[in-house]
Hints:
Layout: H1 2-36, E1 45-48, E2 52-55, E3 89-95, H2 97-100, H3 111-123, E4 127-133, H4 139-149, E5 156-162, H5 182-205, H6 211-237, E6 241-247, H7 258-270, E7 274-277, H8 279-284, H9 299-314, H10 317-323
Parallel strand pairs: 3-4, 3-5, 5-6, 6-7
Antiparallel strand pairs: 1-2
Helix pairs in contact: 3-9, 4-6, 6-7
Amino acid sequence: MPGLKQTRFRRLFANTVLVFASAAAALVLANIILWIFNIGKVEIYRYDPDYGYLAVPDQWPSPRGITFRINGAGLRGPDFSPVKKPGTLRLAFVGDSVTFGGGIVSDGDTFVSLAAARLSRMSGRNIDAVNISAPGWSVQNIKGYVARYGLYDADALIWILPREDFYRPFSHEGMPTESGFRLQFLLSVSMRRLFALIRPKIELHRPKPTGVEDAAISTTLAANIAAFKYVLAYARDRGIRIFVIFFPEGDLPADSLPQAYGEYRATAESFGAKICDISGPIDADGGLSLFYDGVHLDPRGHQVTAALVAQCVGDSLPFLLRTAH
């Protein structure tokens, strides 16, 4: 009997080792395949107390197989000079992951680049765009960044303000700070897609906040409005034309949060900003079909948004060209 028990134990141990070895080999093979096809290489971030975090400069990430550039300033897009070239009109876009552009389009196909190209054709002038954004950034993160680095000699500030940013607190965690297995990214993408599917049901059954939670939300909104005012004042005091573009959260229009929407809109108006709410036009042009995960734009979504942004800014082009510094 003891010999039989030892034999069974050895078999169980051998089978367990085989299972774990097979799983490890499968993971290694999956990562090799992802490396060969250049998929799952995420951008790496560096934390900062003032603006939360920013991508480490000079990277070429390819999280979904489309390679894009993190320039020398740690921002998405080509390298640029902090002082624009003579005769160039510069647009400073600010925002979160929507403005950042997601990971399924190249740098030249983000709505930031497409809108600048449209406006350049409309004006016959050289127009460049600086994309001041990072995934998960709140209004407070943007304020911290602008307080540190400014708006890079911009002639216009174009703030893409999604509904989900109204109450978003200062973001300072959750971003990768070192390279990991590429398979990790794909697993996180799968979880986000799953959440996008079940989110409407969660929102439907989520109780309305009360008491202390209400106070915390109100405090965050107040802090965001104060940060919003800081950036708009920074732009106004330097003669930078301000555009605030309200953006939906998937199929949820910006004005579906009326209190916050009203406060942001009134604040923007008090600084002389031109305001465009593109929630309705996006819904009319495809709505959720323009988003690959319910929040971030797909290639056609970027094209539609670029046209709407160019339309918003286009009427002010003569003024911008006349007053460009």
